[in-house]
Amino acid sequence: MEFFITGTDTGCGKTLVTLAFMEKLRASGGRVAGMKPVAAGAEMTSGGLRNGDALAIQARCSGSFPYEIINPCCLRTPAAPHLAAAAEGTRIDIGKIHRAAAELRQTSDHLVVEGAGGWKVPLTENLDMADLCRGLELPVVLAVGLKLGCINHALLSVDSILASGVLLVGWVANSLERGMPFEAENIATLQQRIPAPLLGHLPWQAKPDPAWSAGRLRLPKTRTTARRPSRY
To answer: Which of 14, 24, 36, 147 is catalytic?
Structure first.
């Protein structure tokens, strides 16, 4: 099983959803790999630049993979990826990302890929996160951060995902605050308007726990298609 986690915006809970699905897949059997192709916001360590979300994904993989395979594009600057890359005098290498994904696919039964920012965040002068997902030929799960304005953010994201020609296989509601007004009503409205199943609701957690969260999710029903050889 393979799918791509995108979100309504930065901070909506993509990493928690990614880790929770990885936990659920591990429990279901098979070798699980996760990937954060692009991360903007990292600290220098003795091993090089490291992003906290990517490290968490690396730790939950079934096998031992080098950090550079899990996160082939790591940028120090916490900004939109194309801006962070420009500020650091580099460019996001899409081919490198495709090669890393191919390596993970060769040694794993399941692959969960987490995007950066939202669906249309730019990566290069003419490519964005939607193009990356489409190039990797992955169905999409949308993480919706529940807050004021989330209905509009979610429905605009859904429209853009569907217009990109990829398969939306589900969405996850993630509570970003305790006691959000009309939370249940917001979820019900989105269920009525999103043409894909709700895969679970993650209530607000003071300390997010991927293992606990996994129990509140169900896996998407993904469609397996023949994978074209990558041109990268």
So the answer is: 36
